[in-house]
Amino acid sequence: NAGVTQTPKFRVLKTGQSMTLLCAQDMNHEYMYWYRQDPGMGLRLIHYSVGEGTTAKGEVPDGYNVSRLKKQNFLLGLESAAPSQTSVYFCASSLVAEQYFGPGTRLTVT
Amino acid sequence: EDQVTQSPEALRLQEGESSSLNCSYTVSGLRGLFWYRQDPGKGPEFLFTLYSAGEEKEKERLKATLTKKESFLHITAPKPEDSATYLCAVRPPAFPSGNTPLVFGKGTRLSVIA
Fold it and tell me: pLDDT (tens digit, 9 = 90+) per residue, A48-61?
């Protein structure tokens, strides 16, 4: 079991560029989540999904889009990156209560 | 208004010096309180879930307890390898059913010095 994996691990973007972050889980979990973590701000929920084909907004959804076409994958897209989106992004999944996190993607927008 | 507040923000202990981390919450109708450990450059690692006041969970040198307004993570005789950021999270009752997103505190950064 690989658990929750994230691709890529690091990325540098220029303002206005787009990119997609991929999250994959092999635990057959229904629920998946995208968070961002910034110094002094803690973990903040961006979007989440309660099952294949469904998505919902979290606390800080602006500037991001998501898709859950397959149960095991949850994609986070940035259409036009801004310096304010410089952060560490974590994906998580859950079956019942506990969420299990991936290793994170460190994104820098210049 | 923060639903989850952790204190202190940072804690420095000598090896073997026991202490406690605090997580207070304002959510009523709590449906679970969660503790995670996060090492630098890594994702949070699940430690414990507590559901009702009076409940306790233990793992090695860590013991988590829950009251109606707060949770404590007690660290007994800590070692340098216990150094990490400890995160607390709650599941609010806002959603009707099923799994709901957790609300995280900002964490306590623990350093254990040999």
Answer: 999 999 999 999 99
pLDDT confidence of B92, banded at 50, 70, 90?
Answer: confident
Q: Do A42 and B34 count as a contact with CB atoms less than 8 A apart?
A: no
**CB within 8 Å: A42 and B105:** yes
Position A37: which residue type? Q
CA B67 to chain CA mean position, Å: 13
Distance CA B28, CA B69 (A): 9
Q: Among residues A90, A51, A55, A47, which one has the least CA distance to residue B46?
A: A90
Q: Is B57 exposed, middle or buried (0-12, 13-18, 19+ CB in 10 A)?
A: middle
Q: Cβ separation of A42 and B87 shorter than 8 Å?
A: yes
A2 close contact with B: CB closer than 8 A: no
